[in-house]
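Q: What would this chain look like folded?
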Amino acid sequence: MTDQATKPNNHLIEIKEYGQSIWMDNLTRDIIQSGELKALVENGGICGITTNPAIFEKAMMGNAIYDADIEAGVRAGLPIYKVYESLIFEDIRDACDILRPVYESSNALDGYVSIEVPPTIAHDTEATIEEARRYYQEIGRENVMIKIPGTTKGLPAVEQVISEGINVNVTLLFSVNSYVETAWAYIRGLEKRAESGEDISKIASVASFFLSRIDINIDKRIDDKLKKGVDDLNVEAKLRSVKGKVAIANAKVAYQKYKEIFGSDRWQTLAAKGAKVQRLLWASTSTKDPSYSDVMYVDELVGPDTVNTLPPNTIEACADHCDPRSRVETGVEESYNLLENLKDPDININLDEVMDELLVEAIQKFVQPFQSLMDSLEEKVNQLSPV
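A: My prediction, written as C-alpha cells:
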C-alpha cells in the first residue's frame, strides 16, 4: 500500500465526520511488523480490521515470515489446525493491541479485530458456540470480535454468545430479511444478558451486509438475457437500468430496517441500560466491474452508525478520491422501487433466489481457502519436520 492513505487530505478521515467508521479488510504479519498498520490506525483513519480464511491464506502462503513459528509448532508436536491457530491468534492479538487506543478512545465502539470461526461449521450451532467461546478466551483481548455466519444455524449461536458477553460480527448477510433476523438475534442476546444482571454496555456487534457479489450475480443474469437478444428497446432499457444498482438499493433498504428496529421501544429499554446499537457493516466493497466507480460502494453508503470495511486497494482509492457525504438515506424510495422492479416480467429476477445462491457460494468461498491453507500448512509442516 502507498502512503496515500496516511496523507493529510485523506478522505477516509472525512467519512468519520458523517458517523461511519472505516475498517480494513486485511491483516498480515508484514503490516504489523513493518509499522504500516500502526500508521494507518494513527494517521490513516482506519479504526478496525476484518479478516477471513481467504485473507489468512493469502497472507501465509509463500511468506517466510511465518516459518519460524510453524517450525516451533512442529517441534511442539502440534496438530495442523493448532499450528494454524497459533499463527493467526498471534496476529490477531498484535492487531488488537495496536487498535487498543481506538477501542478506549471510542468507548468500545471501534478498535476491533474480527476473526472468523472455521467456515466448515457454518451450519452447526453448538460447534459455532463452542469455537466462539474458545477463540474469545484464547485470544484474550476485549477488542476481538468473533465472526459468525448469519445462517439459520448461525443466528442461535449469535444470540447465545452475545448473552455471554462476546463481541460478534455477523457475516455473510445478503438479504434484508437475513439482516432483520440478525438484528433481533443480537437484541435477544442482550436481553438474556440483562435479565441475568450482567453489564451490556461494553458489548459490540456489527451485521456484515455484502455488496459487490450481489451486483456480480445480477449483472451476469442481465447480461445473459441481453446476449440472447431483446427485440423491444423498452425491455432492453429496463434491463440495463438495473445493472450495478441492486446491491446499493438493497443496502439502503436494510438501513431503513435498521432505523426501525433500533428505534423501537424494545430497543430503547436496552439502550437505557447502556447497550450499543448493532451497526450495519458494508462488506465486499471492492468494485469488480471496471466500468463502475472504484469507490461506489463507499460513496453511496456513508451515514450514521455504519461501518465500511475496505480491502487495501479500495482504501487507497477512497483516500484519494472518495466524495464523502451522508448518502445512505438518499434515494430510498427509488431503492424500494428498484427492488420491486426486479419482479417485472420483462426483468424477472427472483431476488430471494439470488440471495440464497450467494450465501451458499460465499460459505464455499471461505471453506475452499481454509482447506487449501490447511493442506499447504500440512505440506510445510512435513517439509520442516525432522526425518
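The beta strands are 20-25, 46-50, 112-116, 144-149, 168-173, 205-210, 279-283, 306-310.
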